[in-house]
Amino acid sequence: MGRIVLEQVTKSFGDVTVIPPLDLTIEDGEFAVFVGPSGCGKSTLLRLIAGLEDVTSGVIRIDGQDATTISPAKRGLAMVFQSYALYPHMSVRKNIAFPLRMAGLDKAEQDRRVNQAAAVLNLTDYLDRRPGQLSGGQRQRVAIGRAIVREPAAFLFDEPLSNLDAALRVGMRLEISELHKRLETTMIYVTHDQVEAMTMADKIVVLRAGHIEQVGSPLDLYHAPRNLFVAGFIGSPKMNLISGPEAAKHDAHTIGVRPEHIAVSATDGEWSGVVAVSEHLGSDTFFHVHGTGLADTITVRAGGEVGFRHGDRIHMTPRADVIHRFDEQGLRIA
Amino acid sequence: MATKASRAAARLMLAPAVILLLGWMLVPLTMTVIFSFKRYLPMRGGDLGWVGFENYARFVNSSAFWPAVQSTLIIVGGVLLITVVLGVVLAILLDQPMWGQGIVRILVIAPFFVMPTVSALVWKNMFMDPVNGLFAHLWRFFGATPVSWLSEASMSSIILIVSWQWLPFATLILLTAIQSLDSEQLEAAEMDGAPPLSRFFHITLPHLARAITIVVLIQTIFLLAVFAEIFVTTQGAFGTRTLTYLIFQRVLESQNVGLGSAGGVYAIILANILALFLMRIVGKNLDR
What we know:
The complex is a heterodimer.
Chain A (H helix, E strand, L loop, with lengths): L3 E10 L2 E11 L4 E5 L6 H9 L6 E6 L2 E2 L10 E4 L11 H11 L4 H14 L15 H13 L5 E5 L7 H18 L2 E6 L2 H7 L2 E6 L2 E6 L1 H6 L4 H6 L6 E4 L1 H4 L5 E4 L4 E4 L5 E10 L3 E7 L7 E6 L9 E6 L5 E3 L8
Parallel strand pairs in A: 3-8, 3-9, 6-7, 7-8
Antiparallel strand pairs in A: 1-2, 1-4, 4-5, 9-10, 11-12, 12-18, 13-17, 14-15, 14-17, 15-16
Chain B lengths: L3 H33 L1 E4 L4 E5 L3 H8 L3 H31 L5 H9 L6 H12 L6 H8 L7 H4 L1 H26 L3 H9 L4 H28 L4 H5 L10 H11 L3 H31 L1
Antiparallel strand pairs in B: 1-2
Helix pairs in contact in B: 1-13, 2-13, 3-8, 3-10, 3-12, 8-10, 9-10, 10-13, 12-13
């Protein structure tokens, strides 16, 4: 059971306010992702929930209990750190068993739980090795193993994939999602990578400078970003943001059009420009178009077979039904 | 890329330094070994010819030998224990963020810059003097009889003086080791439910193991040769005669160079046995 509620939580370091008053509820069994640019306070927020930092004011409730002043060990949460934080002088078995040993479980129970976790994470063959003898992905799994054996109310992940190479990252992303489906335990996951957020989350919390910009499911955020920040942050490649006379046509200060919502043509279209760079991914092609008079660069996604090259003139037509409109304050116009 | 010619040139240019160092070491060593097989009494007839292993037998069979080995080991062991334990404690304290950290760190390191003779004199006259020493005043203030440190507690006093000198070294090495400990490891242990004392024994201390072995190794080599502190304070009396001091007495006070040289060779062997033993421990630690 792990329903986590933050009420009017603030955090300051000296005179610097990192988290202004913030309210947030994470339901039991939910996979919540905190996402935002670096320095937005997402890691601090996670450390507040973990108890590694003290809140300046406000209340943190875990399963309805006030946990604000409870020590990290007693909150029943397990954390996976960015550096994995494995104990280098202990074998994998001892690393995973460490929280159980600290809890004073008997040896047989420790072994049972460690073996069970090792089986789940494919670590059985590595139990007697030291962390230094493992690859990055294996170390990551040991760190997760150490978290699982405690059977926590919730898992906290602090950018766990940022030290892995791109191919491993995709694999581990799937493994963590699968683990969540199997354990059905609350997970809170911090990342700066919106792709991780989109692919894994039940609920995304977009943060900027300690403020929550928007909370919602990945597709909510994709289809209805509440403001310009969320619009620019979620989605890859980024949404094209256009202001000026073109936006005024739509009764807005700024309009946003996603690259995948623009149709391209060699002959005619609403907008036109010159292709600066075309990125051919095989399945898709991205064109970065200059000289449209709308914005510095307009990014367009087309099918893999569309073959414009650098310097070609290209005509584009946005899909009228999916244009996002924003007012002067950058807020969405419904 | 080093070519053959450049490698030869490098050897040639290094040669003077290497020859100088070798000479520096080999000449005294050879002379010591030669003297140890001779009966050589500078003030009483000079070189009286070869005597085989007689000096070696006499040195070991003298009633002063085993007590000297014992006091050497007690001083080395005592100083190591105090410097390592207090070094770890001080390193942990100095690692905490506090006001005036830079100045405090320099102050802690300061004793290391004081020459052994000077520090022994300061301790002997300023602190441990039974009439005018600060300790004597302190004892009298509380109504106790002042202790004459260097005669009543001679061994502890010398260990105290030498420890004071070497504590900064241990602290410095251990402090740098502690600073390299990943704070996320301590946080992970905290989340895993380890109270502060467990965190120290399960995470911090194992992390320091390598630094501690290095401190022990380096200090042992230097502590075996402790001399000035004894010379200035007790002059080898009250059971503080170490092997080094015994050799000094044989050569300069008894004017028996042959006997002293034999003692010197024993000291070299003892130091090498200890060093070899310690190197193996360090090597084992570095393997991980």
